[in-house]
Design brief:
about 425 residues; alpha+beta; 4-stranded antiparallel sheet; about 55% helix
């Protein structure tokens, strides 16, 4: 019983922590619920690109998705619109200029070496070391406290950089970003660790400049030049009225389910309703921690997981009732009910989780949102059904006999014969009488 009380208070503390998260972290909503920006990009031909091929568009679509993710926005829609255009819809970004400025820029990083100067003019030549050799970039500070961009090279890039610095000891090495020289430090000694810094010259970088460069480098260069030919703001496709109606429908649906559990399963149903409330609080807190961007599809996944959570409790209670009819004590019946129902619950939830994993890795962004919310809900529902409901039932009913069958929606006649037969056997065994 002591362990049960410890678990009870642990659950209460977990719920309190979840409530704090819910009230202190914002909820991310998708384009269909909150609106955002819509951009149309068109791939451009160049002197070296005579024709835009489907493979080029696939690569461009992938690169744009990476850049949008670098903005910290999920549930975006990046889809082809014709042979050389992409439609990009970004939720929550109400300033198209911000998305336009980011998506339209390249991330052309080059390291160059000095060439013999003519007429006092310094010229630079490329070295073959570019942004493609960079593993990741991050904003850092120099020893003087200025903002710098720290680079970590890939294994092959680290070899190139080490060889280049060996050749340029005592000479400058220029770092160009999008055609502009950022700095040209003199190499004092070979740098073989695979790390470098871009300082931004004597004046250094402002933090926003360094952060922007880092985001572009981490997102990667566009495989094909792209021009934004259209930009617009979009409102929520569902509209505020539809959102309110969806909330009302959700509340009514959950209330009807909770009322059914209470009327049919009586006191265990009441415990299941409490577990369902705890489940909803925990799932919503996890959505905010991850964070999950909620679209209509994501909300559908969450509501579906609520149904599965209720289904788990129904399996458990039906198994428990069967054990009570067989004459077991409350404690034994509850444990046996949970044990017998666990296999069915685990199997059904695992098939759902496997399906969600497949949908997440193969589906579009909207399908991914549905899969993510559903799999989170399923995992939490297993915790609340197995841990929360079981713990609360043991604390409420204890380990005694079933004195009030009505608590479980049973009649005395449902358990009478089995209970009496069990008690008779116990009395006989107590006095050493064998059948």
């Amino acid at each position: 019983m002591k362990n049960k009380k410890v678990m009870f208070w642990a659950i209460i503390l977990l719920v309190i922590a979840a409530v704090i998260v819910i009230f202190n972290k914002p909820t991310k909503l998708g384009l269909d619920l909150v609106g955002g920006s819509r951009l149309v990009l068109e791939a451009q031909k160049t002197a070296t690109i005579a024709k835009i091929t489907p493979d080029m568009m696939d690569s461009l679509q992938y690169a744009i998705e990476n850049r949008v993710n670098a903005l910290g926005v999920s549930e975006t829609t990046v889809q082809k619109a014709g042979e050389k255009r992409l439609l990009v819809e970004i939720p929550s970004i109400k300033d198209p200029a911000k998305a336009k400025e980011f998506l339209g820029e390249t991330a052309d990083l080059e390291f160059k070496r000095p060439q013999e100067a003519f007429n006092g003019t310094q010229s630079w030549v490329s070295t073959g070391l570019t942004g493609k050799d960079v593993q990741k970039a991050l904003v850092s500070t120099s020893q003087s406290g200025q903002w710098v961009v720290a680079l970590e090279f890939k294994s092959e890039g680290a070899k190139k950089f080490g060889k280049l610095t060996q050749e340029l000891v005592g000479k400058p090495m220029a770092i160009f970003f999008n055609g502009e020289m950022q700095s040209a430090p003199v190499i004092q000694e070979p740098i073989l660790g695979g790390h470098a810094q871009i300082s931004g010259g004597e004046s250094g970088f402002a933090y926003e400049e360094a952060k922007k460069m880092v985001d572009l480098l981490n997102a990667g260069a566009l495989p094909v030049p792209a021009k934004i030919i259209e930009e617009s703001l979009v409102g929520p496709t569902l509209g505020a009225d539809s959102i309110d109606k969806s909330k009302t429908a959700g509340v009514i649906g959950i209330s009807v389910v909770m009322l059914f559990m209470l009327l049919y399963y009586r006191l265990p149903g009441f415990i299941a309703d409490i577990a369902l409330i705890i489940y909803s609080i925990l799932v919503f807190a996890i959505f905010k921690i991850v964070p999950v961007t909620l679209t209509l599809a994501g909300i559908a996944g969450f509501i579906l997981s609520i149904g599965m959570a209720v289904d788990a409790n129904i399996l458990i209670f039906e198994r428990t009732k069967e054990e009570l009819k067989a004459g077991r004590t409350l404690f034994t019946a509850i444990n046996a009910g949970f044990d017998r129902a666990f296999t069915s619950i685990f199997d059904s939830n695992m098939t759902t989780i496997i399906t969600c994993v497949i949908l997440y890795f193969l589906g579009t962004s909207i399908i991914k949102g549905f899969a993510l919310t559903l799999v989170i809900g399923v995992l939490v529902s297993m915790f609340t059904a197995i841990t929360v409901t079981k713990n609360f039932m043991h604390l409420m009913f204890g380990a005694g006999q079933l004195k009030h069958p009505g608590w479980f929606g049973l009649k005395q006649s449902d358990i009478g014969h089995a209970y009496e037969a069990t008690e008779t056997k116990r009395e006989k065994a107590k006095f050493g009488v064998l059948d």
